[in-house]
Amino acid sequence: MLANDDHTVALLHVTASREGKELDMDYALVFHIRDDKITEGWVLTADPKMYDEFWA
């Protein structure tokens, strides 16, 4: 995890299964912080197509 007063970044490796589908990938979560609250967030995946297919 990386953080400063404005942003927090978490670098993750996730594995999951649902409805016969498997997910095994690296991704990052980026949060914008203002007044000690998350105001925006982004998910950045190593393979966006695989990520989308898993959640479809």
Structural notes for this entry:
The chain is mainly β and 56 residues long. The protein has a single domain, classed as Roll (Nuclear Transport Factor 2, Chain: A), CATH 3.10.450.50. It has one helix spanning 48-55, and strands at residues 2-3, 7-18, 21-34, 37-45. A hairpin with a 2-residue loop joins strand 2 and strand 3. The relative contact order is 0.24. The mean pLDDT is 94.
Query: What oligomeric state do the depicted chains represent?
Result: single chain
- Main sheet: strand order: 1-2-3-4
Helix and strand run: EEEEH
**CATH topology label:** Nuclear Transport Factor 2, Chain: A
Rounded to the nearest angstrom, the radius of gyration is 13 Å
Average pLDDT metric: 94
Helix percent band: 10-25%
Assigned CATH architecture: Roll
Number of domains: 1
Major beta-sheet overview:
4 strands, antiparallel
Give me the count of strands: 4
The number of helical runs is 1
The CA-CA distance between the termini, in Å, is 28 Å
Shape descriptor reads: elongated
Kindly provide the name of the CATH class: Alpha Beta
Percent in strands:
over 45%
Spans of at least 5 consecutive residues with low confidence? none
**Which structural category do the helix and sheet elements fall into?**
mainly beta
